[in-house]
Specification:
Length: about 475
């Protein structure tokens, strides 16, 4: 058998793995590579295998770096099942349709540029029709359900505690000699004590473990501090009559903040000002959370019994149109606004920032990762002047980064998880090179484990890993 590390091995984007046995070829994740335009084009258009020759696909979760290139599979002839959890199955259509819309809009924008008139038209990476074709292939399963894949490979989805519906995979791959090879796929691992989500479920007794290493050299603050950090920042701004502007990703972080605000409101620890969820996509995802209650933790259910609906509560305003959104920006009333995008690169948050960034009473709360060269990172770095829609604005609002927020396990949490899984060998993927090397060193020194750092395009033979040296 062969394991092909096709994408997201030595970087944190474009996750893609292919298992090849004598009987079957199974794809694990098909993420979108996000980076510089030309490189992304090249990588996303060339899957690295023939989609029609793949017998089944397994999806870990609905983050775009794990699922975002699935429509390209369908576009190129893939017609077999996509196995995932029921919650991911509900999130996936929202994510893929949005992504298809972006792909089509990007191509249309490039095609209408005058300097391109004499060149062949840009074809979108994929279209809405490709996304719909992929959506029709989804087969949903519960956590813990045993699924037999082509070639007799047994799959169990295990709660990753990362985002709604996210699953680690436990695989049993039949071997020619009769025994099975036990493999754990740990991408992405969540955290303990995250709001809304159950803790990651431990996989044990595996032969091979393939793990993400996004924060392989970092330690997070305790996730239990999230509510307290949010409470202090929100109260500070509201006490001076300001607005709270929270740039947020539509999937996960938006719902987490809404939940924490619900807790704070119930305890009367923040004033009852209007809260706006100003992102149609986040609203659609919030409705999936309401529908997927069985995936959420006991604390959420307790609060829901006391307060009624949380994700679609009556104090939470869903703004539908751009006009509704503009009405909030022009209002001087103190309020809390959640809007995409999470790194302030596009979306409705830009309008809120444009109108609110020069008011010292306001606060901008950064609750997610801010990549280099984004407006979010500039704000995080406290640059005194920023550019929004081509105009310069003085940053007079307070800007605070809430560092307790993260959906990824840190160095210690990853180490504990891998230690308890008791693997014979570990492959580290989904991390920058520094993170991977630092974490590999820790695993070798602390746990005495054999660790490999594969690059994209590398192939491993796990059965050879386990046979004693000659
Ligand atoms: Zn993820």
């Amino acid at each position: 058998m062969k394991w092909h590390f096709l994408g997201g091995a030595n970087q944190v984007t474009g996750s893609k793995h292919l298992l090849e046995t004598e009987q079957a070829r199974i794809l694990f994740d098909c993420g979108l590579f996000q980076g510089r335009r030309k490189e992304s084009e090249e990588i996303n258009r060339n899957l690295g295998f023939r989609p029609a020759g793949v017998d089944a696909m397994v999806l870990s979760h609905a983050h775009i770096d794990h699922c975002g290139n699935i429509p390209t599979l369908a576009k190129n002839g893939y017609r077999n099942a996509i196995h995932t959890t029921t919650a991911t199955a509900d999130l996936l259509p929202i994510m893929l349709r949005d992504s298809a819309h972006i792909q089509e809009a990007d191509a249309a924008y490039l095609n209408q540029k005058t300097n391109r008139r004499d060149q062949p038209p840009v074809i979108p990476l994929y279209t809405l029709a490709d996304a719909e074709a992929a959506i029709r292939l989804i087969q949903a399963h519960a956590y813990g359900e045993s699924v037999i894949l082509p070639g007799g490979v047994r799959l169990v989805h295990v709660d990753a505690g990362h985002i709604l519906g996210a699953a680690l995979a436990r695989l049993e791959i039949p071997q020619p000699e009769g025994a099975s090879l036990r493999v754990a796929l740990v991408f992405d691992l969540g955290r303990y004590n995250l709001p809304l989500l159950n803790d990651p479920v431990q996989i044990t007794d595996v032969d091979i473990l393939i793990s993400e290493s996004t924060y392989g050299d970092r330690l997070h603050e305790d996730a239990r501090n999230e509510g307290e950090d949010l409470r202090m920042a929100v109260n500070r701004a509201l006490a001076r009559g300001g607005k709270v502007m929270i740039p947020t990703f539509a999937l996960g972080r938006a719902q987490e903040i809404v939940y924490l605000l619900a807790q704070l409101r119930e305890r009367k620890e923040i004033p009852e000002v209007p809260v706006y969820l100003d992102s149609p996509m986040a609203q659609a995802i919030s409705r999936v959370f309401e529908k997927s209650k069985t995936y959420l933790d006991e604390e959420y259910h307790d609060l829901r019994r006391r307060m009624g609906s949380i994700m679609t509560a009556e104090w939470l305003h869903f703004t539908e149109s751009v006009e509704d959104s503009k009405a909030i920006t022009s209002s001087r009333q103190p309020s809390i606004v959640l809007a995409a995008s999470g790194m302030c690169e596009h979306g409705r948050i830009l309008h809120h920032l444009k109108h609110g960034i020069e008011n010292p009473a306001n606060i901008v709360l950064l609750v997610g990762y801010q990549a280099q060269h984004t407006l979010g990172r500039r704000l995080q770095n406290h640059e005194p002047v920023v550019r929004i829609f081509g105009d310069e604005f003085e940053v007079r609002a307070e800007v605070e980064t809430l560092r307790s927020f993260s959906a990824h396990a840190d160095r210690t949490e990853l180490l504990q998880y891998i230690q308890a899984a008791r693997p014979k060998k570990v492959y580290l993927v989904h991390g920058e090179q520094d993170q991977r090397e630092s974490f590999a060193k820790l695993l070798r020194e602390k746990l005495g484990l054999a660790v490999e750092l594969p690059a994209n395009g590398d192939v491993a033979d796990f059965s050879r890993d386990l046979s004693p040296a000659p």
